[in-house]
Amino acid sequence: MILPVTLYGDPVLKRKADEISTSYTDLQSIIKNMWQTMYNASGVGIAAPQVGLSIRLFVVDTIQLNEKRKSNFQGIKKVFINPTILSETGDEWKYEEGCLSIPGIREDVFRNQTIKIHYFDENFNEFTEEYDDINARVIQHEYDHIEGILFTDKLKPLKRKLLLPKLNKIARGEVDVDYRVKAYKK
Q: What pLDDT is recorded for position 72?
């Protein structure tokens, strides 16, 4: 089932998400719905807070970028449950990021080249792995979501101030997208 994407302004996007256990209700359905929602919105990753759930879960599919990246790029398609980034190393590099919860805004964000992350997959198998390049960037972006951080939080104060009118429109639900969204109603 395709879920509505939670828009900027909803408090769930600014809250540090809770860990989940193997007995979390309907976890496999939630994961399936997150994949469908992400693909429907043409995303490469989506975190549970973006579908209104404050839990430490996100999915990433950068395999779909293989054709757009250099020939030796190896994309990933993974579920990350209760992840912890153990290290971020390498030079910071900028890349224009966007977000399904902040449609119509794309800005350069600086992130480290390589990460080491500990997580569980959809079957609660445990992993500690390293990622670099765009894989690391997408994981860092989605990881930020479960920490209550948006990519706009990483921009310089003046840039954020200039974006405020657009962000306020998004918060009111004034967006033009071809996927389901949900604005926060106070």
A: 75
